């Protein structure tokens, strides 16, 4: 059988620099996402000195700050965390759409992997479930995805 070349990212964070960008909006949820991301990185070999946390007002501001962080060249990977919870008006859709598109754009434009740890939920309960309770922790998932993607990109 011919050999199939396979590229997979190792989940080793030793020697890597990370920037976590976290919203102040819904901070009681977002602090759990941030903590999950930090804990994941430390457990996989990163050191505290190589992790920077930047706080922004809300999800809408995540892309511009992620863009500056990526272009500054001091981060191997970026992790965005936040929580947008549906209100009574279409505001939710606009905030989610721009944050999502903007974060994806930063990664594609700069080549720096950006983990997407932004909760977009219909209810507060759904956010709580995804911030370290019964449905896991999306901050952890975003940190893991950013690290794995970085390790894949390094082999290409
Ligand atoms: N409603 C939520 C927001 N809204 C605020 C915007 O993100 C933005 O900060 C404001 O419009 C000023 O530009 N942000 C969240 O992160 N979560 C929400 O539920
Ligand atoms: C997520 C939102 O946009 C939000 O909390 C705003 O609520 P509303 O639509 O009731 O103004």
From TrEMBL:
It catalyses: (2S)-2-hydroxy-3-oxobutyl phosphate + 5-amino-6-(D-ribitylamino)uracil = 6,7-dimethyl-8-(1-D-ribityl)lumazine + phosphate + 2 H2O + H(+). It comes from the Bacteria. The keyword Acetylation does not apply. The active site is at residue 91. One of its GO terms (molecular function) is 6,7-dimethyl-8-ribityllumazine synthase activity. One of its GO terms (cellular component) is riboflavin synthase complex. (2S)-2-hydroxy-3-oxobutyl phosphate binds at residues 88-89, 130. 5-amino-6-(D-ribitylamino)uracil binds at residues 25, 59-61, 83-85, 116. Keywords: Riboflavin biosynthesis, Transferase. Pfam families: DMRL_synthase. It is an enzyme of class 2 (transferase). InterPro entries: LS (IPR034964), LS/RS (IPR002180), LS/RS_sf (IPR036467). Pathway: Cofactor biosynthesis; riboflavin biosynthesis; riboflavin from 2-hydroxy-3-oxobutyl phosphate and 5-amino-6-(D-ribitylamino)uracil: step 1/2. Its EC number is 2.5.1.78. GO terms for biological process: riboflavin biosynthetic process. Catalyzes the formation of 6,7-dimethyl-8-ribityllumazine by condensation of 5-amino-6-(D-ribitylamino)uracil with 3,4-dihydroxy-2-butanone 4-phosphate. This is the penultimate step in the biosynthesis of riboflavin. Belongs to the DMRL synthase family. NCBIfam families: lumazine-synth, PRK00061.1-4. This is 6,7-dimethyl-8-ribityllumazine synthase. It comes from Desulfomicrobium orale DSM 12838. The gene is ribH.
